[in-house]
Design goal:
By secondary structure, the chain is mostly helical. It has helices spanning 13-25, 28-45, 64-84. It has a domain at 27-84. Helix 1 packs across helix 3 (64-84) and helix 2 crosses helix 3 (64-84).
Length: 89
């Protein structure tokens, strides 16, 4: 039985444009936190993709869609932490 090679993923132009806009409009602090989260992921996987085993590039060398994904993760976690923080009375 032969295995076929999967077709490489190519995001839609709209998705790529949205990722570019997210990165462009992000603050320096948000991008630093996204890079930190990405680095933490790599520290658990030995600097390799847990899916393919390929060596992970630096955060800045990642494609915009990957950086935007980590940025979205940081934004979501930040919002969740804010909601979980008790309000002082």
């Amino acid at each position: 039985m032969s295995m076929s090679t999967p077709t490489p993923y190519a995001p839609s132009p709209e998705l790529s444009a949205h990722a570019d806009a997210m990165i462009t409009n992000a603050s320096a602090a948000e991008l630093q936190m996204a890079a930190r989260a990405y680095t933490a992921y790599g520290s658990v996987t030995g600097g390799r993709s847990a899916v393919t085993g390929a060596e992970l590039p630096t955060f800045d060398a990642c494609k915009p869609l990957v950086r935007a994904g980590w940025l979205a993760t940081v934004r979501e976690l930040t919002a969740a932490l804010v909601l979980a923080t008790p309000v002082a009375e």
